[in-house]
Amino acid sequence: MTHSPTSGAGLLHRLYPAGYRAAHGEEIVAVFAESVRRADRRTAVREWAVLAAHALRLRTRLSSRDPAGRVLAAAAPFLLAGGAALGVLHLLTDLILPGAHYGFEPSWAADGVQGAPWVLALLCAALGRWTPARALVLVAVVAAQFRPEPAAMSSVHLVQLWALMGVLVLLAPPDAVDLSRRGRNRAVAAAIAVALPMCAVDALWIGYWGEDSLAVQFPPAQQLPLDALAAWPAVVMAVAYALRLADPATGRLRAAGVALAALPWAAMTAAPLYRNTPLDAQELLGNAAVVLALLVVATAVGLLRRNRLAGAARPEASDPLR
Amino acid sequence: MTDRQLTEPTRLVLTALADEPRHGYAILQEVLAITGGRTKMLTGTLYTALDRLLQQGLVQVEGEEVVNGRLRRSFALTDQGRHTLTEETRRLRAGAAEAERRLALGGLRPSGGMA
């Protein structure tokens, strides 16, 4: 079955921003019409959808040629790493460990399962499969909005953190995401670095509190370091940002993307629960100040190192994909 | 040397332009031919790649002509694009050579049980 060459072409044409449409719109629509002339319906729909996405990315300035798009593309693997680290944490503390200590609790289990698509998404990305990774993030974000009895979920406020991370991952232009082996290794390393200490703390404390974890009161000497541990994910992202910035071969937009991946962690709550009580505005501002301070230090360290390395003359070093 | 390998659509577009300048639809046809009919690049994928390659200076607009009342651009590799494709080809060749070497070593081993 063939498809009409002009089907949807008019709408596609209008989707492009005016300047781009005036310069290249007719050329693109002509290539589109030629491509779908003998195509089956499925191919034609794919052609239309991918071209519409191209137009919308240009219109919203989130394409890989736009600075905002390149920053998001650099942030995406680290946002995915963070989301997956939270996913591992909740699989462990809501599904695996409580089952061992208190028996199976369906509402906790449902909570833990929310993290599974994130973990699977990171595995896909680690294998270089960004399209299924994005699909799984979309599943995670959408499923979290339709979860049963949201008030019963112990990590209800973290759904918002996950949603923020997920939306940013989905907005990132896929063609600019670094899926080189080194890039994938960086994302996996970041996920492990974020997850390991948080999981260790939860594993140590899981028998300490009762089933009503809201009632747990830690002595100040314990609560203070636990509160500080809430900043751990942001510390990991700040270190990753400093390392990227320090590399003269890395474009500054690409480094800035890693800094962007640190910002959502301002919404992180304290160990060992990492859940239950949503942050109030004062706590959120305090956390944001900590994250920004970490980024300022990382910027200073990264730039110092970058300038020193650049001074050591590596004229050929450049990242044309910045 | 870049710290990133090229994505497949990018590599295919650069390869399609390696011998001569081409316009959009001709690039799609060339990609189909290069891949032995396995890869039918979508129009949106092509122009996403072209926009980025133009912005990175790996591809340039070689000429513009009016065909059936429509402006049509033809694209060509820049020197930087040619260099990038050369480097990528070298990387791929090295990987393929290593794979062949290991396969050959595996083929020399006696078949049978585990050590």
TrEMBL record, chain B:
It holds the Pfam family PadR. Residues 13-86 form the Transcription regulator PadR N-terminal domain. Gene3D superfamilies: Winged helix-like DNA-binding domain superfamily/Winged helix DNA-binding domain (1.10.10.10). This is Transcriptional regulator.
